[in-house]
Specification:
two-stranded antiparallel sheet; alpha/beta; four-stranded parallel sheet
């Protein structure tokens, strides 16, 4: 149920650290320990749940541009055992992703606005049962209304006694 904020200037290493924790960057020295039980060498083992326990969302191209929203949903379900398709559908609706309209699930990721791409990434990660949620500059391209929805989702996540690491240049976003 704790939240940790990493705040700093560009180039300070915030995103590098998060990428190492999330396993998207492997060119580092040292060793990591996850949840007091597993190290970074265990992270990708099939019988070790570390990958399932960490949810990560950040800026950049998260999904292939030619994928449809439907394919994002299907691939996420294949990759993560604890992905809840109904929760994903609900999040698409709550976050008002334009792809959640009649026939909209066939919309390609490349056709979504930057804000809707970020909301799609959030829906994908929040629809999973994770113990640690890592949010890297998630509100950069979101409207103020959508930011309020995200803040409520973050509050709910904390109440569920799950941990979060929030990276931002803006102190108000981390509260």
């Amino acid at each position: 149920g704790f939240a940790t904020a990493l705040i700093g200037e560009n180039g300070a290493g915030k995103t590098t650290l998060i990428n190492i924790l999330a396993g998207t960057r492997l060119d580092y020295k040292g060793e990591l320990t996850f949840f007091g039980k597993w190290n970074d060498k265990d992270r990708e083992q099939e019988d070790v749940p570390v990958r399932e326990m960490i949810g990560y969302t950040g800026p950049g191209n998260y999904y292939l541009p030619n994928w449809t929203v439907q394919q994002v949903e299907e691939v996420t379900q294949m990759l993560f055992d604890k992905f809840d398709r109904e929760k994903f559908e609900s999040l698409l609706e709550q976050l008002q992703i334009s792809a959640n309209t009649a026939g909209g699930k066939q919309k390609k990721v490349s056709d979504l606005s930057d804000g809707n791409k970020m909301k799609l990434m959030l829906a994908g990660v929040l629809a999973r049962e994770t113990s640690l949620l890592i949010l890297d500059e998630i509100t950069q391209s979101l409207s103020q209304d959508t930011r309020q929805v995200i803040y409520r989702l973050k509050d709910r996540f904390k109440k569920e006694n799950r941990a979060m690491i929030i990276i931002s240049h803006d102190l108000d976003e981390t509260l």
